[in-house]
Specification:
The protein is an alpha/beta fold. It has a single domain, classed as Rossmann fold. The chain is 28% helix and 27% strand. A hairpin with a 2-residue loop joins β9 and β10. It is globular. The protein binds adenosine-5'-diphosphate and magnesium ion. Magnesium ion (MG) binds next to α1.
Length: 232
């Protein structure tokens, strides 16, 4: 099993103000699969992603990725794990405003050993003609594609996407999801997306429905659809 999460719990706040955000999450993810966590706003989706991505620490439970336990590790070990294993596409893109598209990607490439060629990647993501632009001069879709390029240029085994279509219109959302399909096929990347968009679940190999910090349902999809087959 590529990712194995057991009894994951997370609290915020102290003492009487303490709230339980994740109440014992169990999840498994196969290598090379696309998994979608579906749930309403506030259900704990970003918290799960941030813990798997090493940005937050769990209070209880275990997270094992590619045979390595990441829960309870030192910050140096977590930094290395993030550098070597994880690509993260943030909801707000997190591009560096005073660097061009190409420079934004280069700075991430430097962090990894098994890197993807930047020109190849920019071509794949339709960014070649925008490579010298600054983020403020890009459309939402172009910013999102730059964010995806930054996340995968180190060729991570696991790509985590927080609401990847959250701020995009319908056509641009489909373009973005098609690119994620292509990335999975070309590089074998395992992709975990969290979203409130039900339609995205149709492209998944497995869906977890989350509600109030608990997995309400786990669905293994027999025939995942390609982005162009999905009725939106
Ligand atoms: P989702 O991504 O599904 O919208 P989140 O994981 O962001 O949900 O948040 C789940 C719950 O945890 C929400 O009630 C949110 O307000 C709370 N929460 C998230 N982060 C923090 C934090 N750093 N401090 C306190 N509460 C938080
Ligand atoms: Mg969220």
């Amino acid at each position: 099993m590529f990712v194995e999460i057991k009894n994951l719990k997370k609290y915020y706040g102290e003492k009487e103000n303490k709230i339980s955000v994740l109440k014992g999450i169990d999840m498994t993810i196969d290598e090379g699969s696309i998994v979608v966590v579906l749930g309403p706003s506030g259900s704990g989706k970003s918290t799960i992603l941030n813990i798997i991505g090493g940005l937050e620490t769990p209070d209880e439970g275990s997270v094992v990725v590619d045979g390595k336990k990441i829960s309870g590790k030192s910050s140096a070990e977590i930094s290395r794990y993030r550098r070597e294993m994880i690509g993260f596409v943030f909801q707000s893109y997190n591009l560096i405003p005073n660097l061009t598209v190409k420079e934004n990607i280069e700075i991430c490439q430097k962090l990894g050993d098994h890197v993807i060629d930047i020109n190849e990647l920019m071509k794949l993501l339709g960014l070649s003609e925008h490579k010298n632009k600054f983020p403020r001069h890009l459309s939402g879709g172009q910013q999102q594609r730059t964010a995806i390029a930054r996340a995968i240029v180190k060729n991570p085994k696991l790509l985590l996407c927080d609401e990847p279509t959250g701020a995009l219109d319908y056509e641009t959302s489909k373009d973005t999801l098609r690119l994620l399909e292509t990335i999975r096929k070309k590089y074998g990347t395992t992709i975990l997306m969290v979203t409130h968009n039900e339609a995205i679940g149709k492209m998944a190999d497995k869906i977890f429905r989350i509600s109030g910090g608990e997995i309400a349902k786990e669905i293994r999809v027999e025939n995942p659809q390609s982005v162009d087959e999905i009725e939106w």
